[in-house]
Amino acid sequence: MSFIRKAILALALGTTAIAAPDRGIAQTIALKEDRFNEVLRPAAQISGALVAGIQKQALSPGGISLRAHVPEKWAGGDLCIRVLSIDGLYEASNTYSVPSGWSGGIADVEFPSKYLDRLLALPSDGVGVKIVQGPCTQQTGQTTVAFWNGAAGDPLTILVNSFRADAVFVYVGAEGPPVKCDEIRLESRTSFDTRCVIAPPAGAPFVDLEFFRYQNRKPAPPTSLRLWLDNG
Fold first, then answer.
1. pLDDT digit string (tens) for 40-86?
2. Helices (H) then strands (E): counts for the chain
3. pTM of the model
4. Mean pLDDT of the residues in the chain
5. Which has the least CB within 10 A, 72, 81, 92, 129?
6. How many domains is the chain partitioned into structurally?
7. What range does the domain containing 134 cover?
8. CB neighbour class for 173 (10 Å; exposed up to 12, middle 13-18, buried from 19)
9. Cβ proximity of 54 and 227 under 8 Å
10. CA angle, 170 as apex, 169 and 174 as ends, to 5°?
11. Could you tell me whether strands 218-219 and 206-215 are parallel, antiparallel, or unpaired per DSSP bridges?
């Protein structure tokens, strides 16, 4: 970590999200396999991933809508969508196919869960959705925005497993101060426990994120990923 970033982290301030225009729905992204892989465990399982969800979210008592921003560059390939409850009991992990002629934009996602009632009962920040380029068996560091009942104008929230860190920060791009993440004040925070609300640069196709965790004032190794954005 550079000296400048160390200095900025010491003076880190929070930020708010900027709304992006809705690009609409083009079509449905379908499962690559006939089987929908999901599990509801009797006991919680701890996730080893730092980032559990990158999403625009809202509560919807009438049903669940799962959509994805799929970049044009992902056309003809696969993507992996993982849905995880904060208590670690529910998990769905499935590979989806992107049509070869995909022109980019927001699509509906096939999500035939048997546990919709249980997912609907979870509070805000209670479900993490992470979309990664490539099949679930072989992923990359390329991610994109999920919509869990959310709309384009909703804040962009990143759900993080801090692994009991005292503080979590995320850099959004190469410039500007880091965003200080906040503790999620819900019970049974097994899968993730922290939320970061970020404001990506308007008009950019993607942004690079770098996460820093501090425990006992000592930094853990940073985690980096590229986030493709649903900008107009």
1. 999 887 777 899 999 999 998 788 999 999 999 999 999 999 999 99
2. 2, 18
3. 0.87
4. 88
5. 72
6. 1
7. 3-228
8. middle
9. yes
10. 135
11. antiparallel
